[in-house]
Write a structure and sequence with these properties.
Blueprint (H helix, E strand, L loop, with lengths): L1 H4 L1 H15 L6 H5 L6 E6 L3 E7 L15 E6 L2 H12 L3 E8 L2 H12 L3 E8 L5 E8 L2 E7 L16 H4 E6 L6 H16 L3 E4 L13 H4 L5 E2 L3 H8 L4 H11 L4 E5 L5 E5 L2 E5 L12 H14 L4 H15 L12 H10 L6
Helix pairs in contact: 4-11, 9-10, 11-12, 12-13
Length: 351
């Protein structure tokens, strides 16, 4: 991303403004992409381990014990998986969050480091208990149970160092509905970050209460790219019709792109230039954990390089397709070569 972060990026991002992000992006992107910023992206939010149980034939009912074919303890969380994949694709990525000094925290910290994610702003504290998600993977989908610990809903807007908007040109926040402390002061923080030239992407995550707001309506006007999945956009848009719900959610944004992840059906994007849909790439599914977060990373890799929205969807779909062929979201993150090979061949996997 060094070439993107240099002079070429200023012009490229300006050219991409209408297509990829609508009226929200402006001339400040030239400065944002400048070499003075040491990172491309800061990911901010939750950190937890994932215990992935894959190859189940079904989710066991109460009182039953089922066998799985594979298991793994990995770095999880929507925001962290996306951060690792962004780094694997070549974006210089940092993280703002917290971890305990326990075994789960060690797994998370080591994995971030293995993928080259800057952890200088990840606080480690023996008083914290690192969160855990148990992922039960069945066929093309999964069920999840999460223990928040002290590291998932732990970052408030006031905890974000003041220098963050000056150190990166983009900020990504995943699992909005889990990061309740962050949501409270997020609009004001985003206003300040945007004034310093940052662009913003956001993922919703599932909301157990299903009132589908939690402060989201005050944040969406400040977001350049919003990444809900099919169920989430239907909840937020209050319609069982995915397209109608998506149009309602896009209307809640000041501009930018709404990108709806549709799993095996690909992805839908709505921007000021209209509506666009791209089919998913065929892939052999091992585990879908982290596929949506990998999609986010692939999309953002293309979007931050100034590519048109159609290409961004292709990169997102390809990253997701590569991801589902592996256990968990961070056992082996997609590389740029694998993503571009998927796009070239029209399918995931070896040639």
């Amino acid at each position: 991303m060094s070439a993107v972060a240099g002079a070429a990026a200023g012009a490229a991002m300006g050219a991409a403004a209408g297509t990829a992000a609508g009226a929200v992006m402006d001339a400040t992107m030239g400065a944002v992409a400048g070499a003075s910023r040491k990172l491309d992206v800061y990911a901010i939010g939750e950190l937890n381990a994932d215990l992935v149980l894959a190859g189940l034939n079904a989710i066991p009912p109460l009182g039953r014990e089922y066998l799985c074919r594979e298991s793994a303890l990995l770095l999880g969380s929507s925001t962290a998986i996306c951060a690792c994949v962004m780094s694997s694709l070549g974006l210089k990525t940092g993280f703002v969050g917290a971890l305990g000094m326990d075994a789960f925290g060690d797994v998370c910290h080591a994995t971030l480091g293995r993928y080259g994610v800057d952890t200088a702003r990840v606080r480690r504290d023996a008083a914290l208990r690192t969160g855990l998600t148990v992922c039960l993977s069945v066929g093309g989908d999964r069920a999840m149970v999460t223990h928040l610990g002290n590291t998932i809903d732990c970052v408030a807007a006031g905890d974000i160092p003041e220098a963050v908007p000056e150190e990166a040109r983009h900020v990504h926040i995943g699992s909005f509905f889990l990061n309740r402390k962050l949501a409270v002061g997020l609009p004001a923080w985003l206003e300040r970050a945007r004034a310093k030239g940052m662009t913003v992407s956001l993922d919703a995550g599932f909301q157990e209460a299903q009132d589908w707001d939690g402060g989201l309506s005050g944040v969406l006007p400040l977001v350049d790219v919003f990444f809900p999945n099919r169920e989430e956009v239907r909840g937020i848009g209050r319609s069982d019709d995915t397209l109608e719900a998506a149009r309602r959610v896009r209307a809640m944004m000041r501009g930018g792109a709404l990108v709806v992840k549709l799993g095996a059906d690909g992805a839908l994007a709505i921007s000021e230039d209209g509506e666009l849909r791209r089919e998913a790439y065929p892939a052999t599914v091992v585990d879908t954990t982290g596929a949506g977060d990998s999609f986010n990373a692939g999309f953002l890799h293309a979007w931050l390089a100034g590519r048109p929205l159609d290409a961004c969807l292709c990169y997102g779909n390809a990253a997701g397709a590569v991801s589902v062929g592996r256990m968990g979201g961070t056992s082996r993150c997609p590389t740029l070569g694998e993503v571009e090979r998927c796009i070239r061949l029209g399918r995931a996997g070896e040639p």
